[in-house]
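ok, trying the design again with the full structure, not the truncated one.
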């Protein structure tokens, strides 16, 4: 365990920074920083060379997590040991593991040059539930999708979203704060076929859609779906057929089905 003095004051600048970043989207975007909490998340961030500013570990966690401390030391990362009480105070979970990291926003290449004409993408439009967004990123990771594009969605760097990704945040290419008005023309310019996921019996069933070429599927808001103007601007409207009286699916569940079909199109 590092021999430096244990931070125990709630007024310590490192503690106050964590609290600001955890509680406020405005502060996160002003500083370009967000907070990771949990052993697995921090280990994944280190393993994928995320731009970590510093690691904070509670006294009790530092006494148990020798492997993590070794990785932190190997990568030359800054580490602060904090009291168990402060760990509980800054935690966004009920039972903290006492492992935190402050990380810079993840870099991504310019979208225009990064989009591949034969790529497979998911476009999320006005998605607002953090759990849904995190789960969708995790599923996209599992399916090997080329990228997720976010248009007017909830904050991908919020603690709830980051936790829900379970580390996939560092493995899935994503573009934050895209504008749908400029994104659709760019996708069409790249000859990427756009599919609007809709609830409409007249739309093409997903099982008959051809995803073998470059494809981007758009999923809309949990309650309202895609705006009509967006659906109309896509090349194809598609739907997931359902039985009985069910006429809609949770956004993350629908995305899972769509991502499976997209992944099949890559084979």
């Amino acid at each position: 365990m590092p021999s430096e003095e244990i931070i125990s004051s709630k007024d310590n600048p490192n503690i106050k920074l964590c609290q600001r970043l955890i509680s406020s989207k405005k502060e996160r975007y002003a500083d370009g920083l967000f907070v990771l909490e949990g052993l697995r998340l921090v280990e994944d961030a280190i393993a994928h060379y995320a731009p970590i500013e510093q690691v904070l570990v509670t006294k009790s966690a530092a006494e148990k997590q020798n492997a993590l401390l070794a990785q932190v030391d190997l990568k030359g990362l800054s580490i602060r040991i904090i009291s168990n009480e402060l760990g509980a105070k800054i935690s966004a979970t009920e039972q903290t593991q006492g492992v935190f990291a402050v990380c810079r926003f993840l870099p991504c290449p310019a979208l225009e040059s990064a989009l591949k004409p034969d790529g497979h993408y998911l476009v999320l439009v006005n998605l607002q539930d953090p759990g849904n967004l995190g789960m969708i990123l995790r599923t996209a990771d599992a399916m090997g999708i080329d990228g997720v594009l976010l248009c007017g969605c909830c904050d991908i760097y919020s603690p709830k979203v980051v936790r829900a990704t379970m580390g996939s945040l560092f493995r899935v290419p994503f573009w934050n704060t895209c504008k749908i008005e400029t994104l659709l023309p760019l996708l069409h310019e790249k000859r990427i076929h756009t599919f609007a996921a809709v609830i409409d019996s007249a739309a093409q069933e997903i099982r008959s859609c051809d995803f073998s070429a470059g494809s981007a599927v758009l999923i809309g808001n949990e309650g309202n779906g895609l705006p009509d103007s967006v659906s109309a601007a896509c090349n194809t409207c598609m739907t997931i057929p359902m039985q009985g009286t069910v006429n809609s699916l949770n956004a993350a569940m629908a995305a899972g089905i769509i991502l499976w079909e997209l992944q099949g199109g890559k084979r």
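Keeping the full-length input from now on. The chain has a mean pLDDT of 93.
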